[in-house]
């Protein structure tokens, strides 16, 4: 029996790297991994080593170029669409590119899929940013938050919302393309995935960078803001289990949270990280959260657990320690990447 053929866009990124590793370990699939290597560090040593596996074909491509899709061919059973510009700093520095890249890549991918790969199943990684605006706009949101809440862009003039806005648009595209052209699809909304190789603009690697540099006083922006965190190996395991489940094949397509549901404040997160790294600053400097930052986030994961037999295996303490140990092994110039 021939092995499954799988396409991963954005496969050199944080989630893509760990998803690729998981699929190689958990299946006999043949993988085509696509990325433009926009991420700082490019084709680093870990990616180079991973892509030596004979079951991986790597293609460096610009997915905002419609002609590039001719290189992909067809015959993919599963397509994981992870490619996007991510990172809070980039939302503010290049919001126009966040919108352009994050929408065009899905539009062109859908057009390619309906012409060349209609029998395949497409997973779109959306974001919990997609519904975060409801809390800012109306001052309330059910917590834990289910998938079916109003999707709101609280302030279109705030560049931060370009990312969440593009994710909302992408969800609409996939839902209605899948329904009209009758192909299988799935939307997942990640809730604060973290672990080795996470982008430096996210809170866990940002805190780790300051800890490793012994920044004192230690600044915490929005100390009473809360999030729930899911370690990356648990996250990609949930993604593949959802894709392999026949329960996610029906129309209309499912939208599913992937998260841990354990809410913790940024102050509490910092305290856990001080404990696991064995260093604590003498002074903590509490600062206001950036404009547009959401006060609370906690995922309702009851739909996820109803669809698949999944539960997180890595505790926050264990995951933070694993992440810290990985960052300690990196050359100094790589630690903030």
Give the mean pLDDT: 93
Count of beta strands: 13
The fourth-level CATH homologous superfamily is NAD(P)-binding Rossmann-like Domain
Radius of gyration: 19 Å
Helix content: 25-40%
CATH architecture descriptor text: 3-Layer(aba) Sandwich
Shape: globular
> For the terminal residues, how far apart are their CA atoms?
41 Å
State the order of secondary-structure elements, H for helix, E for strand. EHEHEEHHEHHEEHEEEHEEHEHH
Helices and strands: which structural class?
Answer: alpha/beta
Low-confidence stretches: 333-337
Total domains: 1
Strand order of the largest sheet: 3-2-1-4-5-6-11
Descriptive notes:
The protein is of the alpha/beta class and 337 residues long. It has one domain (5-194, 229-260, 299-313): NAD(P)-binding Rossmann-like Domain (Rossmann fold, 3-Layer(aba) Sandwich), CATH 3.40.50. It is built from 11 helices and 13 strands. It has helices at residues 14-26, 45-50, 88-93, 95-116, 129-138, 161-181, 203-212, 232-244, 266-277, 302-307, 316-328; strands at 5-9, 30-35, 56-60, 78-81, 121-125, 184-190, 193-194, 218-221, 226-228, 230-231, 254-258, 263-265, 284-287. Strands 3-2-1-4-5-6-11 form a 7-stranded parallel beta sheet, sandwiched between helices. Strands 7-10 form a two-stranded parallel sheet. Strand 2, helix 2 and strand 3 form a beta-alpha-beta unit. Helix 1 (14-26) crosses helix 8 (232-244), helix 4 runs parallel beside helix 6 and helix 7 (203-212) crosses helix 9 (266-277). The longest helix is centred in the N-terminal third of the chain and has 22 residues, at 95-116. The protein starts with a strand and ends in a 9-residue tail after the last helix. The relative contact order is 0.14. Residues 333-337 have low confidence and may be disordered.
